[in-house]
Design goal:
Two copies of one chain form a homodimer. The first copy, chain A, has five helices and 16 strands. In chain A, strand 7 and strand 8 form a beta hairpin. In chain A, 42% of the residues are buried. Helices cover 17% and strands 26% of the residues of chain A. The first copy, chain A, has an eight-stranded antiparallel β-sheet. The first copy, chain A, has a five-stranded antiparallel β-sheet with strand order 6-10-9-8-7, with no helix packed on it. Chain A is of the alpha+beta class. In chain A, helix 1 runs parallel beside helix 5. Chain A is globular. Chain A has one domain: Beta Barrel (Cyclophilin), CATH 2.40.100.10. At the A-B interface, helix 4 and strand 16 of A face strand 7, helix 4 and strand 16 of B.
Chain lengths: 284, 284
């Protein structure tokens, strides 16, 4: 591990010195079907990567509920433009009440060996931001705390007023990042394919003066499945660029420099963690 | 004007002291039909407020082109998830080439009397952020410069590599704010109604491994009209909360404090300028 890190470091330094000569090829990480969710909507398919390494209990409960068919036919009953698409079983129904409550997993303590691929210092909501295993996160060294951040397309569990009151209702931010919810909600995955179908969900909320939306028009999740339970010929297998690799670090350096002639005047060399899209490709 | 400012100031201070006793009613600003655009898409109607006070030449050209029917039937030919929806005439066509080029209006100089409703200090891309006349902006006192920022739903003119090369192609960010484009592009308005229809536009770009999208499937703007040219009984008249009023300042204070019991642990008292949605209502 130590050797790998050193090699990576030397490589990154060389790349910084000889940027144009050093176009490391993107390294890919294949998403495991047992760690991926297929959501079938009336208008398209959405793939979600789960993050059991960061939010294990939420991922376990979500996966179990999916296998039990808990979400099949559930509605996206709270879809607010520039905020979230939230779905789950009918509020207060037997199905809803039968789900155990979850202890929050909004952040975790880091030890001295903890590391991530840093993107930015002095973010509005974090001392540092970066990526680990393909997930965007915040990190406060002063508190020894790290957490998954709310970007467009992250999936998090909804809750009541109490910290430990999440069960099965989930939301996906559909507009500008909801960073003020970081650390007090449990983010447990992110949409890696088909985000346009989440953005196209029927809005359930109107502005003053507009007629209310009939709840019968809310969009249903036709089916939610663990990708590993989907017949092999219907699986959607995605690869994401490896955020632990030197090629990614190098891409961040270039990204920040904005060397394309389009930037006739350079923006500040800063990166918003939620505006660093990761490359993805479809394997089958 | 001076009196109004003083009264506003006193009111704001009293509100800060007696926050709960001071629920100022939202003050509304009606959008003028001659300053508003109606975009008719196959799947819905979108209303855009223009900003002639900040980007006069772009607004003038855009309005003239709309009245000439320049955009009717144009395609959204570059719709990339988490980035932009861009539209305009066929590239290189006579229609395209006939449009005069515009000098950039990406920022402007402020004098000592310049002011806005401040939202946040030390934003990643600006010394200060805030609102003026309902538009989100950045402001660097050290440079005496201010500009309209790129939030989801702002409309800006596309350009080539040169600063003064915009003509009629425009884009609307559809995901996380593209703040690194601030000051080097001309933002000239924002979507105030129907943003969900922009988000639902057919994507034109695919990831590696996906079949390409047939350009015949790209979404067309059926019609673009100045609202003042729309028959009165078909006009969509919107009001937006007045960002110069004490009620708005007071709402910002509350917003930042997150006093709702849902926040069992308070987030940092900071606001992302692109995550401060302005209230809107439909008059007719």
């Amino acid at each position: 591990m130590k050797l790998a890190t050193s090699v990576l470091h030397i490589f990154a330094v060389v790349c910084l010195l000889l940027i144009s000569a050093c176009n490391a090829e993107t390294q890919w990480r294949v998403l495991k079907p047992e760690n991926t969710v297929l959501m079938t909507l009336p208008h398209g398919k959405v793939v979600i990567e789960l993050a059991p390494q960061f939010s294990p209990k939420h991922v376990q409960q979500f996966s179990t509920l999916i296998k039990d068919g808990h979400y099949d036919g559930n509605k996206f009953y709270r879809v607010i433009d520039g905020f979230v698409a939230q779905g789950g079983p009918e509020d207060g129904s037997i199905k809803d009440k039968s789900v155990p409550l979850l202890a929050i997993e909004g952040e975790w303590k880091t030890d001295k060996n903890w590391s991530f691929t840093k993107v930015q210092d002095n973010d509005l909501f974090a001392e540092q931001t970066g990526f680990k295993n393909g997930f965007a996160m915040g990190y406060n060294p002063s508190e020894k705390a790290a957490w998954l951040v709310h970007c467009p397309g992250t999936i998090a569990m909804a809750r009541g007023n109490e910290a430990d009151s999440a069960s099965s209702h989930f939301y996906i931010p559909n507009g500008q990042a909801l960073r003020y919810l970081d650390r007090i909600m449990t983010v447990f995955g992110r949409v890696v394919f088909g985000m346009e179908h989440i953005q196209a969900l029927k809005r359930t909320s109107v502005i003053e003066g507009q007629p209310a939306v009939d709840s019968r028009d809310f969009t249903a999740m036709i089916r939610m499945e663990m990708m590993s339970d989907v017949p092999k010929n219907q699986q959607i297998i995605i690869e994401i660029e490896n955020t632990e690799d030197a090629a990614f670090t190098q891409r961040l350096v270039k990204h920040r420099k904005r060397e394309n002639p389009f930037f006739y005047k350079k923006p500040l060399p800063v990166l918003d963690i939620c505006q660093v899209p990761l490359k993805a490709r479809l394997i089958k």
